[in-house]
Amino acid sequence: MDYSSKIARQVAAVPRSGIRDFFELVQGRDDVISLGVGEPDFQTPWNIREAAIYSLEKGHTSYTSNLGLLQLRKLISGYVSDFFAVDYKAESEVLVTVGVSEAIDIALRALLNPGDEVIYHEPCYVSYCPSITMAYGEAVAVPTFKKDGFSLKADALEKVITPKSRVLMLNFPTNPTGATISNDDLKEIAELCVKHDLMVITDEIYSELRYDDPEHTSIASLPGMKERTILLHGFSKAFAMTGFRLGYACAPQPIIEAMMKIHQYSMLCAPITSQAAAIEALQNGAESVEKMKASYHQRRDFMVKRLNAMGLDCHSPGGAFYVFPEISKFGLKSKEFAMRLLEATNVAAVPGDAFGACGEGFLRCCYATSMEDIVIAMDRIEQFVRILETP
Ligand code: PLP
């Protein structure tokens, strides 16, 4: 059968993730040091795993309310109030989702009509553009640049706003650049959103992982912004809980109601065992987050220092667990550089163009891997760079 006519156009239009493609090449190779996958190398803290086990032991294996367990939503509401300085009602303004991934998808589907434009800053997380396309939106990228630390500037944003612009997607700290945004820039962007009546989806999944300036400001906390913002957060990164697949969305009640409609028919609810683990994470996980963060901080400093010293120009990212060195001076495309690096040294890093066209000329190196491996990887990359430099 010819399946090309059977697959929906919106789905056929979307490419496979460049990260996954690259990592299929890594499968089956021995001795590869991976700076590739954006996933904590720590196991989920034991007390959180134990809470999941206890929950199963007690026989808690049912569906929960579509919105998620009320006890968890109350804890999320308290956490978001303390950490992001925005108040959401646990009963009606918080929705527990299957990871931030689901929250991105249903936020877009709840807001978009076909042809609505969604603006996002690039380089960006691989799911944004495909999720916009699959929700029948038009994806509009605003490039960001190394000279600005890959942060978003209001004047660049204003240039792409049209009467069809409906949503702005933000992600600070950013995957793949580790960029953060200053409060002044965030304020200017918020003013533009009010002026042009844009809704905002802000993915703040890395907000605990900030190093130089630990104060995180959410756009939702700025004047006039809560009413037009969907704040997304989750447990995967800071709590090292990727496999639990748990995230949440906070937004005004009518928006949560719209997202909940999609969630209840497609997902029903997030897994109860993961929700039990998340309750423990919010009640007793803060110390573990601080320990993991201190370790990432040390690894970031080491990696940035080594890369710059070997001539791979690299800004010091303020957050997340990625560095984004520039490799353009070697005259190789990102993909070719990454492939040759893998072939020659068995070090895997993701080509920057996997995160959008303006990531060309860069490489994403994740430092959520052991210091021991980072040291070996840096030694191998340095040898590779010396070979490239040899006339
Ligand atoms: N948003 C960003 C910016 C990410 O980097 C990731 C994962 O890498 C996700 C969302 C997905 O998060 P989750 O595991 O909660 O679905």
UniProtKB/TrEMBL annotation:
CDD domains given in the database record: AAT_like (cd00609)
Catalytic activity, EC: 2.6.1.-
Annotated GO biological process: amino acid metabolic process
InterPro entries referenced in this protein's UniProt entry, alphabetically: Aminotransferase_I/II_large, AspAT/PAT-like, NHTrfase_class1_PyrdxlP-BS, PyrdxlP-dep_Trfase, PyrdxlP-dep_Trfase_major, PyrdxlP-dep_Trfase_small
Keyword Secreted applies: no
Aminotransferase class I/classII large domain segment(s): 31-381
Protein's recorded name: Aminotransferase
Organism for this UniProt entry: Rubritalea profundi
